[in-house]
From TrEMBL:
One of its GO terms (cellular component) is lysosome. PANTHER family: ALPHA-L-FUCOSIDASE, ALPHA-L-FUCOSIDASE-RELATED. GO terms for molecular function: alpha-L-fucosidase activity. Belongs to the glycosyl hydrolase 29 family. GO terms for biological process: fucose metabolic process; glycoside catabolic process. Its EC number is 3.2.1.51. It comes from Rapidithrix thailandica. This is alpha-L-fucosidase.
Amino acid sequence: MKSKASHLFVRLTLLLLIGLSACKKTPPPAPYGPLPSEAQIAWQEMEMNMFVHFNMNTFSDMEWGLGGESPEQFNPTALDCRQWAKTAKEAGMRGIIITAKHHDGFCLWPSKYTEHSVKNTPWKDGKGDVIRELAEACKEYGLKLGVYLSPWDRNHAQYGNPEYLDYFHNQLKELLTDYGDIFEVWFDGANGGTGYYGGANEERKIDRKTYYQWDSVFSLVKELQPNAVIFSDGGPGCRWVGNEEGWANATNWSLLRGDEVFPGYPHYKELRSGHEDGTHWVPAEADVSIRPGWYYHKYEDHKVKTLPEMLDIYYHSVGRNSLLLLNFPVDRRGKIHEKDSARITEMAQRLKTVFETDLALQKTAEASNVRGNDKAYQASHLTDGNPQTYWTTDDQVTTASVTIDLGAPTEFNRVLLQEYIALGQRVEKFTLEVLEGEEWKQIADETTIGYKRILRLPNVTASKIRLNIQASKACPLLSTFSLYNAPALLLPPSIHHDKEGNVTLAAAEEGLSIHYTLDGSDPDSSSPKYTTPFLVDKPATLKAIAVEGGQSSGISLQHLDISPKHWQVLQSPKGKKEEVAKMIDADPNTWWESEKEQAFPQEIVIDLGENHTLKGFTYLPKQSRYISGFIQEYAFYVSNDGKSWGQAVAQGEFSNIRNNPILQTVNFTPTQGRFIKLKALRAIEGHHSVGIAELAVITE
Ligand code: FUL
């Protein structure tokens, strides 16, 4: 029989051995594949930056200026770079990138190498420097500064010749030496060389791949700003995401076959996912504007993206392993417009609310494999709130599971995962399961993670959640596994009344109930509940709210009327006849436009199919990014037989349609008729076409 003392000895020895093995320093996994530089990691951690498009186009009201604009035009009345910086800072952004020179060649700084710059403008008597003011504002607000310098230059006389390259290099030198640290240099893939756009020297065709001598451009950046990340379609620092709508594919590798891709790369859709077999670390940057245009146009004041649209962008960029570069078209004052700053504030507040409380923080996590059974790599690093620590497995293990025990049934609808990217991007496939009662249920089946992956899921209440890594290029390394419960987004529902007369109501997020009225009274949670589309084919005032747990949204309101189901366009000016029905398809996003250069008046006649008492009409001008065909002066007629029209029932002008091309409503004395005629007498700005997104009537 062993003595108590010998028992104690054995136990102590065992404890010592366990302790020793726990302390044993298992070496970390070897890096796998292409790796990010320190600068790229710091860049990725910025997550969301501000893009500012402000330049000559702001004053010429263009998107791509031609290059011949007079510097006299550039004259912001109240330039306020501090306001931009404050807006960015308060929204949680870390840097600002400014269009120092866009395709039209005008420079926001007094470059020594051209007269086409701020120095020849009335603004501050030619003594101003926008880049300097922005650099100072960024410093004040603790933001980093980046510059966009368009390679394509429609002003420079030598563009297309080798001489232009010296100019381009010299400008880059100025920007990279005179304004302190630059965190990103943005080289746009868009350029001429097509002979199509009609700016200066456009007939000089260039080879986008070779003309700019990218290698020497990139070396210059490296020499002058070693920490700057270089953006272009193919990097080398970060890559364009392959669309201008702010989204990456769900599968998104921070890798690229770097030697294949160059600015202007034709297979740009590949950039949405990167190249799984990429040879270089070139993470995605998703650029998108808060309005349709990159530059400010007053006529887009009503088109600032909605909060749900902004949130989709966030989840589809930052939530998909991409950086988000969100553009603000600064206006002619030199300020971010009030509508845009209100929207970004709303978005930032919402994100703060959603990601305030990590429900997995400090919860127990267990993994099917821990590298060398070493505490340094244990699963609890996933829930310790520290992105610098990670869980990883033994080298040969590329499939593994981690289970988080939440301690009690917990409701959540967001899952956030992060790989520890300093050692490479690895995970190729994963699923998520939750323990609901006694049952494990799969709630997600996904591919890549990368620096950050956020999944938006329907609400689930579970006591445990399990992550199954099903494929990884090498042993997986994850730093974060967080859960959040986003409160419902209680925005007024959207209303769509289609061509057939069906009304569809939609809440900003799943899971909310919608209640509505059709008699003009304010709805509450006892009003009829919306379940499926319903028919309304007569005049009615629709009001709707979204409701969740005793809370209601504001009211959305729309006047509904007879549907255009049986209408026919009988007469229209010269243009695509097969598309003419787009003006009566109840879809505001499609339009019909007559051929350019036609004489006025131009007439449109519509047969409503039967007699109605009409008391007004509505006209929605085309809602495209490029304005033309906005009717300025009109006359409107009603007829019983489509032949005799008599006097106009309404005549006048859409006074502010250029700047505010929203739905135009005209009321007139009630008149019986089956046929209507809109006579366009003039379009804005001397245009000679007529563009109509929707034409509709108001009946009694
Ligand atoms: C594009 C440009 O052509 C647009 O004008 C804008 O600057 C956008 C960010 O990049 O390629």
